[in-house]
Amino acid sequence: MDDRESTTVHRLERGATSFDDLGAHTGRTFPAGNGIWEESVDDPAVRFFSSETATLAIDVGGLVQGVDDAGIYGVRADDPYTLWRFSPDGTERTSWGTAATIATVDGSVRLSYYDGAPTLVAGMSKPSICSGSRRR
Predict the structure, then answer these.
(1) Which DSSP string do the residues of the chain spell out, in sequence order?
(2) Contact at 8 Å (CB) between 80 and 97?
């Protein structure tokens, strides 16, 4: 038995007088169009639900970063530096962006689209550089 908590998702379409049940989901959900995309921790595919059963599955191969009516945006596990756009029907994958490399006092740091990447905190690592007197 799965011990993860599930959430039942409902949809209210424009002009409707009652909610439609989109089922119970344990993964992260992203609303889009007339349904939701669900990302499961157990499956590399993100699944589209416009009713209680999935109507489409797309293998993102990593983590979903967001969705809209134009596609699913995700980061593949084997390449955390490229943001990919997957067409809503799953037939096309396009490189949508490449993470930047920035210079820091400790050398270059390559940023990542992956949620688990360390957070880069902007600031001064050597405040003594700024010490001194001000003239008026």
Answers:
(1) ---S--EEEEE--TT-SSPEEEEEE-SEEEEETTEEEEE-TT-SEEEEESSSSEEEEEE-SEEEEEEETTEEEEEETTEEEEEEEE-TTSS-EEEEEE--EEEETTEEEE--S-TTSPPPPPS-S-GGGG-SPPP-
(2) no
This prediction's pTM: 0.70
What percent of the chain clears pLDDT 90, i.e. is strictly above it?
12
Give the pLDDT confidence of 78-116 residue by residue, as tens digits: 888 899 999 988 889 999 988 888 888 888 888 887 755
> Which value, in Å, is the radius of gyration of the alpha carbons in the chain?
21
Contacts of 59 (CB under 8 A, 6+ apart): 44, 45, 90
Amino acid (1-letter code) at residue 57 = A
